[in-house]
Design brief:
heterodimer, A: mainly beta, six-stranded mixed β-sheet, 9 strands, B: seven-stranded mixed β-sheet
Chain lengths: 110, 124
């Protein structure tokens, strides 16, 4: 089972700001950097944010990441219909010697 | 352009074996760590195994340790996952993914490219 905890769902209307939390521990988020993945329906996951707050080339700047202690957050500003997807946080875990994913959050655009 | 193409999935009975392959191109395969990640139907992502870059070791999730073996062939730019003693709960879409990793104060470790996945179904 996942060691990173996310809310199962989040929603907003077009143009709104939505925030997703990710709670971990000292062996993962507290020590190592956090990444976020977006999974559109029926597709493979795609890297959205890496190293806590860095966006890969091509990712719109309305996606932003932050981290404090053993928790991290993903914010989507100016929500758009194409942002409707599942979002996962992830980090390397030093205790498990493995990569851990969050439980996932389904974002719905109302 | 990085390309990852996973194959080898299929229907297998409980207790059976299967070998997944991931054909890679567009990057220096031998210097990058590679991962297998799976997703059971309707469920979230689960990390399965890592092969370290520059041959720096292999790592497994507790759920597959002792049953699965990750390997690679750098001459063919291929990643493999040998799956033995398969269980119904191993049923999932299996993705291969390229890793970017370095250690500063802590690990920066992320999967920057993913393949399309290959479906493994374990059922009698």
């Amino acid at each position: 089972q996942s060691v990173l905890t996310q809310p199962p769902s989040a929603s907003g209307t077009p143009g709104q700001r939505v925030t997703i939390s990710c709670s971990g521990s000292s062996s993962n988020i507290g020590t190592n950097t956090v990444n976020w993945y977006q999974q559109l329906p029926g597709t493979a996951p795609k890297l959205l944010i890496y190293s806590d707050n860095q966006r890969p080339s091509g990712v719109p700047d309305r996606f932003s990441g932050s981290k404090s202690g053993t928790s991290a957050s993903l914010a989507i500003s100016g929500l758009q219909s194409e942002d409707e997807a599942d979002y996962y946080c992830a980090a390397w875990d030093d205790s498990l010697n493995g990569y851990v994913f969050g439980t996932g959050t389904k974002v719905t655009v109302l | 352009e990085v390309q990852l193409l996973a194959s080898g999935g299929g229907l297998v009975q409980p207790g059976g074996s299967l070998r997944l392959s991931c054909a890679t191109s567009g990057f220096t395969f031998s210097t990058h760590a590679m991962n297998w990640v799976r997703q059971a139907p309707g469920e979230g992502l689960e990390w399965v195994s890592s092969f370290g870059g520059n041959g720096s070791g292999t790592f497994y999730a507790n759920s597959v340790k002792g049953r699965f073996t990750i390997s690679r062939d750098t001459s063919k730019n291929m990643l493999y996952l040998q799956m033995n003693s398969l269980r119904v709960e191993d049923t999932a879409l299996y993705y291969c993914a390229k890793v970017v990793a370095w250690r500063g104060g802590g690990w920066t470790y992320y999967l920057d490219n993913w393949g399309q996945g290959t479906l493994v179904t374990v059922s009698s």
